[in-house]
């Protein structure tokens, strides 16, 4: 099972919804799509197109992705008229994936046709739709009821009255004529109040297309150090790199960040993950575009962190999304150690009998992308560590946001000699859900229910718990590593990455350096996720279904927090911009002193 990880909808009463399953969610549709995909994979494109067409005609509202796949099959079968006929029914209507359209090799034969640019224009010129208060209420109530029905960890950090109070307060802010962007700012704090970072709010495809082609963006990029927003790029003659951003258009950054932090969920009461996610990929500029009116120019106030001297720069032009994204890539690309290219690596320092084992991810697809296999890499790494006589091992998981379940305990198995209990329990919220028609499981809900019923059982107290033996953790390896262990963590250490940190804290003698992990020490709600698609605003609400409660004999960590480092440490802005790795340097100093 994969943990859903860094990118991108009608309310019915229960008995009405269940009554519609036989037609709207008929397994015939899913089976027909599977048949079409097999024909496509076999390169029988014309028959694949015919099969997709039959499947899409069998339901009132086919999945736009399946209509797109039908068009691809027609294009590969060299029948452009049929391909354009399919695309015209979805592009700019229910399908807004511009990058896919313009890069998919299946559609090469269509791009010289005069009809092609007309299709793209429908996405480029999309506009936000204003919605009635009644429709916005409908979406809101569907979201709240779905969270209560499906989110297993909803009351882990909240009481029921507290969550209801938040919902009532946010619902009272709904106004007639709101568009999806304004509505996002109403409901995202509700989702964030679940205090579970695997839960999310996303704009729908149409609003996302609007943000790409019509919105404007703040042109500076930020690095948070000790909660202070440092600018990490200059802009022409405006030399502000390394300075603290204190105001944007007259609004204090404390006030701006209070709003942004209310939109970003995290595990429990943790804050390190929020700051890291808001800075990651330049998301501060994205949040600004989501939360504040579009402007053509910015005025900023900055201060020198060493002297406190303030400066004001006015008339700074806003930028397009593409310019903003390109600038961010260039900015971080010019800062040493700011990005990584491989999911894992091993380096030795023979003079210090030490090694650095880095795991930037536990996601198998990242390993597949560079032709690595996680388990083999770990096995080979520890074989080399033994051969090299390493007595000081640094494991760096500062960028590890998790991935596949089980990767964390496989790594741990090379560090321990005694078996342990990984989870106290794993709990599901239900065996089935009432809102399939408004979810990504609309047409294949049977697969989800089959998994839930196959892997879980109803306990005597009414809890739905994982059956023994499902995803059993890895037992200790023979001849494990027994030397000194140092683990580097940050707010980006999340999900499976944070679980590894918790396990290591409980079952090894590791020394932790860096930031509090972003993921919860006592567990998380993650695993399988159902994505609720709000029918009117088209916003997506990602709802995790499984509550993982870790077995933690060491209960010294405050409830609602991640692993607290033995040595809390962040670099200075000068160190960060130079690429000096302060946390790694500190770990090496500890090793040197111990020697």
How is this structure best described in words?
There is one protein chain. This protein is of the alpha+beta class. Among the domains are: 14-124; 344-524 and 544-594, 2-enoyl-CoA Hydratase, Chain A, domain 1, CATH 3.90.226.10. It has helices at 14-24, 27-41, 45-57, 64-76, 80-88, 98-103, 114-124, 133-150, 160-171, 180-192, 205-213, 253-263, 272-279, 283-291, 321-333, 364-369, 374-387, 407-412, 445-455, 496-507, 573-578, 582-594, and strands at 200-202, 222-225, 228-231, 244-248, 251-252, 297-303, 310-317, 344-349, 354-359, 392-396, 423-428, 456-458, 464-466, 484-489, 511-514, 523-533, 540-550, 567-568. Helix 4 runs antiparallel to helix 5 (80-88). The radius of gyration is 25 Å and the shape is globular. The model is unreliable at 1-27 (pLDDT under 50).
Please give the share of residues in helix.
40-55%
Q: What portion of the residues fall into strands of 2 or more residues?
A: 15-25%
CATH homologous superfamily of the domain at 344-524 and 544-594? 2-enoyl-CoA Hydratase, Chain A, domain 1
Secondary structure tally, helices: 22
Question: For this structure, what is the CATH class of the domain at 344-524 and 544-594?
Answer: Alpha Beta
What multimeric state do the chains show? single chain
Low-confidence stretches: 1-27
What sort of overall outline do the alpha carbons produce when their principal axes are compared? Answer: globular
**CATH topology tier name of the domain at 344-524 and 544-594:** 2-enoyl-CoA Hydratase, Chain A, domain 1
CATH architecture identity of the domain at 344-524 and 544-594? Alpha-Beta Complex
Terminal-residue CA separation? 43 Å
Roughly what is the average pLDDT, rounded to an integer? 94
Radius of gyration: 25 Å
Task: Sketch the major β-sheet.
Answer: 6 strands, antiparallel
The structure class reads alpha+beta
The total of beta strands comes to 18
């Amino acid at each position: 099972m994969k943990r859903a990880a860094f990118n991108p909808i009608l309310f019915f009463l229960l008995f009405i919804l269940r009554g519609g399953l036989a037609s709207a969610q008929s397994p015939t549709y899913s089976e027909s799509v599977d048949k079409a995909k097999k024909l496509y994979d076999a390169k029988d494109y014309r028959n694949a197109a015919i099969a997709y067409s039959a499947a899409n005609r069998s339901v009132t509202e086919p999945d736009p992705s399946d209509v797109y796949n039908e068009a691809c099959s027609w294009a590969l079968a060299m029948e452009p008229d049929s391909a354009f006929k399919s695309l015209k029914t979805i592009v700019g209507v229910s399908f807004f994936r511009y990058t896919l359209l313009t890069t998919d090799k299946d559609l090469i034969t269509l791009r010289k046709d005069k009809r092609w640019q007309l299709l793209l224009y429908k996405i480029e010129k999309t506009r936000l739709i204003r919605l009635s208060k009644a429709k916005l209420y409908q979406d809101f109530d569907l979201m709240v009821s779905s969270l209560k029905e499906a989110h297993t960890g909803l009351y882990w950090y909240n009481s029921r009255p507290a969550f209801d109070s938040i919902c009532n307060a946010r619902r009272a802010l709904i106004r007639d004529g709101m568009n999806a962007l304004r509505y996002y700012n109403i409901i995202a704090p509700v989702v964030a109040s679940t205090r579970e970072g695997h839960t999310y709010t996303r704009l729908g495809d149409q609003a996302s297309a609007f943000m790409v082609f019509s919105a404007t963006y703040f042109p500076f990029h930020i690095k948070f150090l000790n909660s202070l927003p440092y600018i990490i790029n200059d802009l022409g003659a405006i030399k502000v790199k390394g300075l603290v951003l204190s105001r944007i258009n007259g609004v204090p950054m404390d006030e701006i960040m209070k709003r942004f932090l209310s939109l970003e969920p995290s595990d429990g009461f943790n804050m390190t993950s929020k700051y890291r996610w808001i800075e990651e990929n330049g998301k501060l500029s994205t949040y600004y575009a989501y939360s504040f009116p579009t402007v053509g120019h910015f005025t900023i106030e900055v201060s020198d962190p060493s002297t406190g001297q303030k400066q004001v720069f006015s008339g700074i032009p806003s930028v397009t999304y593409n310019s903003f994204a390109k600038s961010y890539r260039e900015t971080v690309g010019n800062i040493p150690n700011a990005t990584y290219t491989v999911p894992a690596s091993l380096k030795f320092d023979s003079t210090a009998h030490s090694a650095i084992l880095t795991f930037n991810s536990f996601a198998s697809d990242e390993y597949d992308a560079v032709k690595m296999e996680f388990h083999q890499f770990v096995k080979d790494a520890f074989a080399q560590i033994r051969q090299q006589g390493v007595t000081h091992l640094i494991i760096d998981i500062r960028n590890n946001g998790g991935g596949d379940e089980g990767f964390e305990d496989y790594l741990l198995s090379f560090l321990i000699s005694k078996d342990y209990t990984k989870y106290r329990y794993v709990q599901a919220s239900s065996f089935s859900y009432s809102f399939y028609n408004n979810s990504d499981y609309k047409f294949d809900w049977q697969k989800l229910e089959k998994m839930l019923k196959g892997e879980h059982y109803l306990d005597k107290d009414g809890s739905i718990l994982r059956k023994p033996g499902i995803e059993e953790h890895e037992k200790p390896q023979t001849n494990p590593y027994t030397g000194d262990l140092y683990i580097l963590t940050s707010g980006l250490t999340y999900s499976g990455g944070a679980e590894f940190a918790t396990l290591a804290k409980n079952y090894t003698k590791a020394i932790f350096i860096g930031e509090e992990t972003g993921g919860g020490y006592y567990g998380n709600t993650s695993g399988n996720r159902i994505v609720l698609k709000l029918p009117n605003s088209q916003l997506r609400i990602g709802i995790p279904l499984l509550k993982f409660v870790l077995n933690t004999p060491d209960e010294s960590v405050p409830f609602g927090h991640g692993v607290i480092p033995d040595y809390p440490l962040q670099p200075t802005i000068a160190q960060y911009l130079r690429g000096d790795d302060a946390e790694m340097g500190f770990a090496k100093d500890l090793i040197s002193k111990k020697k």
